[in-house]
Specification:
- This is Restriction of telomere capping protein 5 isoform X2.
- Residues 1-138 form the TLDc domain.
- InterPro entries: TLDc_dom (IPR006571).
- It holds the Pfam family TLD.
- By secondary structure, the protein is an alpha+beta fold.
- It folds into two domains: 10-138, no CATH class; 142-181.
- Helix content is 25%, strand content 29%.
- The protein has five helices and ten strands, in the order βααβββββββββααα.
- The chain has helices at residues 15-18, 22-29, 140-161, 167-171, 174-181, and strands spanning 10-14, 36-42, 47-52, 69-74, 78-82, 87-90, 99-102, 111-113, 119-122, 125-136.
- Strands 1, 2, 3, 4, 5, 6, 7, 8, 9 and 10 form a ten-stranded antiparallel sheet that branches.
- The protein is elongated.
- The termini are far apart.
Amino acid sequence: LDFSCPSHWTLLYNSNQHGIGSNRFLHHVLSYRGPTLTFLRGDEGVLFCMGGTSEWRESHQYWGGDDTIILQLLPHYKVINRGPKSMYLNTSIRGYPKGIRAGNDPRKPSIEVDDSFQHVTHCGIPYKLESVEVWGCGSPKNREVQLDIKNWQIKEAEKNRKLKMTSKEWLDHPDRYLLELAGRQTYSTS
């Protein structure tokens, strides 16, 4: 989107830069602990905005504070919904709708983004989802916390990637047997 924004806002996710999809969305947005603005641009010139007062979270329940707001910005401006428990994100919990939803009525959401991030639906009309942007509107401290969490996750993944085992453990390890089956009889035990 082309607009001026306060200097402390930070772009968390732009589908044109980061790739479109629920995995990319989750990776860039979930660990940000502050209010956000999410812009959904569809074909036919539609643009929606979801203003969340708290961080995005994955759940089978709707969430959001009293000041949460759902807007249609284009082609005509209108307030679609305002109030608590009006946002929803689920990509993994079985038995519940997948994707992003917004609105007062969980049975009939005002805005829906399917789990493949291909369509955004408003009032039962599907539009091809062209782009998604999420802006972090909290303090610079919120962004620092997000980056700290991401760095910790990277370090944990690296630490868990290296598996250290003793010679005795290696003797009974399935990988050892696979190497032997493949004809590799000489291997390091260090």
